[in-house]
Design a protein that fits this description.
By secondary structure, this protein is α/β, with parallel strands linked by helices. The protein contains seven helices and six strands. It has a six-stranded parallel β-sheet.
Length: 191
């Protein structure tokens, strides 16, 4: 299992918002419990927890016609300040956690994530999110180009297509962000 320096690590929990969890992950209690356990262990070990969320202003001025987020706009999803854009209560932020808001698929697109990571001296990203083929893939590609080291907590990621998730985690992303499980991460923090 890959090791990491907890003084350089940060945990990224991405798109665990009500509209995303309820529409795409069909509240899997196991997924939410594993994610909550990872966050609790990170906090106890002094590893920063950073929530990456996506939301849009009323009227969706950030969403172009015919773009990727047409269905989001058409269904009134992920609007700033709505219950749908809120982080799911099972993984609610705690005092000291940081929340960044993005405007596209990847965690750095339209957010101040890199500024926060650099100011905290964090260069190793331990990440998970919904969906593996969306925010996880896009963020890992960006982070690789930005010279971060990474791990993906594979059993805290979700994709509607289980085979797409498997191929991404085991083949596409494995070379840049070796997969670990929630239990492996938690055990390593406690060692």
């Amino acid at each position: 299992m890959p090791s990491f320096d907890r003084d350089r690590a940060a945990v990224l929990i991405m798109d665990y918002q009500n509209d995303v969890v309820l529409r795409f992950a069909q509240p899997d209690a196991g997924l939410l419990k594993r994610a909550a356990d990872v966050l609790d262990a990170a906090r106890q070990a002094g590893v920063p927890v950073i929530y990456v969320t996506i939301s849009f202003r009323e009227g969706y001025p950030e969403v172009p016609q015919g773009g990727l987020f047409d269905q989001v706009r058409a269904n009134g999803l992920l609007r700033e300040g709505t219950e749908g854009a809120a982080i799911h209560e099972a993984v609610a932020p705690q005092p000291g956690d940081v929340i960044v808001t993005k405007k596209r698929i990847g965690a750095a697109a339209g957010s101040d994530l890199e500024c926060i990571l650099r100011s905290k001296g964090r260069s190793h990203l331990v990440m998970f999110g919904i969906a593996t083929s969306g925010v996880v893939l896009s963020t890992a590609r960006w982070a690789m180009d930005a010279d971060y080291t990474m791990n993906i907590i594979s059993d805290c990621c979700f994709d509607r297509d289980a085979e797409v998730h498997r191929v991404l985690v085991e083949k596409v992303l494995a070379g840049m962000a070796p997969p670990i499980t929630a239990d492996q991460f938690i055990r390593q923090l406690r060692d």
